[in-house]
Amino acid sequence: MSAGLGDWSFFVEHRAEILGATLEHVELVLISMLIAMLIAVPLGMFIVQRPALRAVSIGIANVFQTIPSLALFGFLIPIPFIGGIGKRTAIVALVLYALLPILRNTYVGLSGIDPSVLEAAEAMGMTSAQILFRVRFPLALSIILAGIRTATIITIGIATIGAAIGAGGLGTFIFRGVALVSDSLILAGAIPAALLALIADFLLGLLERRLRVA
Amino acid sequence: MLRLINAMLLPSQGQVLVEGRATAEWDPIRLRRGIGYVIQEAGLFPHFTVAENVALVPSLEKWERGRTEARVAELLRLVGLEPGEFEGRRPRELSGGQRQRVGVARALAADPPILLMDEPFGALDPVTRAELQREFRALAQRLGKTIVFVTHDLREALMLASRIVLLETGRIVAVAPPQEFLQLKHPEVRAFAASLETHPGVTE
Q1: A9-211 has which fold?
Q2: Rounded CA separation B107/A133 (Å)
Q3: Residues B160, B134: Cα–Cα separation, whole Å
Q4: What's the pLDDT at B202?
Q5: Where do the domains of chain A lie?
């Protein structure tokens, strides 16, 4: 063990490098989350009225969750177009992990609306699109956001493994630290990653509470 | 039954005529915008203010703003809620009786010729219910609309109806104005009438 927990000089000396890796990490997470939301939220809206598709799509998203993350990264490398070494493969894997929490919460939020509200909406002559966008979606928003929050935190953690396939980010320090048996290096990756997760959790939690109705 | 009138259900046989036209031939959206609907739990939109709830059909019908605002204020006064005090509130900030008043105002917003009411006062405490029943009777006489009102409460039916239809397992077993209803000989009518007599204080 080369450095004690009290040794912060490593952080000071390598601050530029750590900052760069943190930004790279944030970039990975943001891109992956954006793609995952663009897939999972509309998909969740789509499956609300279609029970058969619901079981299938949530089942598939579930399967991705059960694959150990390092293995999933490994599986993706030989696949053409989406695979290979680098950021793109990592983003594909991160998206697959983020899908389930968002999809499930979108579905739960949209289907958990008070039936009397939906009955009134229909009886007032709202079209199904109007009911979806003006009633179901706004009422489900805080639950959907809770899913996005969970997914973001998972993604920040798993993104560190992206370094194993050359995606960069804070995992670079962790893998190097493990190889060199250096606590300082591991912490240089782990502490910023933990801070990112805490900050994301806090900010998204604030937003979630603001959007909550009733 | 009410859902058959506004085409939320279509009849498996026969037809339901609204203004002389079968519900299956109506555009369901157009049909429903001309029919007010009030249900037991009110079904107000929790993310809308009282004013937005009442303005729902006008907003779907793209009324201009000034006209909608005037109509909302008019309706809130009609159902006994002071607009200045209640307009900006959310449904969760209302009592059960107030929510139901807003539900009635919402149903009347676009001045539909027909009003469907599914046990609208059923979930209220007895005092509030009696108050709303009295007010609603006066309101209904003033509005001059066709109102189909479903209730399990015979007293309510006797008090509000101009014509009572008794259903038993989906069939009409009796039709009569309230004055004659209690004189009918049908066993189901007798059973309902007997239930009235066992409760003291019915003669209000």
Answers
A1: MetI-like fold (1.10.3720)
A2: 21
A3: 8
A4: 46
A5: 9-211
Query: Which of B38, B57, B58 is CA-nearest to residue A124?
Result: B57
Nearest CA in chain A to B106: A124
Identify which of B111, B104, B180, B91 has the alpha carbon closest to the alpha carbon of residue B138. B104
Q: Which two tokens stand for residue B57?
A: 């059909």
Residue B41 region, left (φ>0) first, then alpha (ψ -120 to 50), else beta? alpha
Which residues from chain B sit within 8 angstroms of residue A142, using beta carbons? none
Count how many pairs of residues, chain A against chain B, have C-beta atoms within 8 Å: 68
Residues pairing with B200 in the sheet: none
What pTM, to 2 d.p., does this model score? 0.80
Q: What is the pLDDT of residues A139-183, one digit of tens each?
A: 999 999 999 999 999 999 999 998 988 888 999 999 999 999 988
Q: In this structure, what DSSP letter does residue B165 have?
A: E
Give the best residue of A113, A119, A124, A143 to mutate against chain B (max B CB count within 10 A): A124
What integer best gives the mean pLDDT of chain A?
Answer: 89
- Please provide residue B149's backbone torsions phi and psi, each rounded to the nearest 5 degrees: -125, 115
Q: Which of B32, B46, B116 sits opposite A125 (nearest CB)?
A: B32
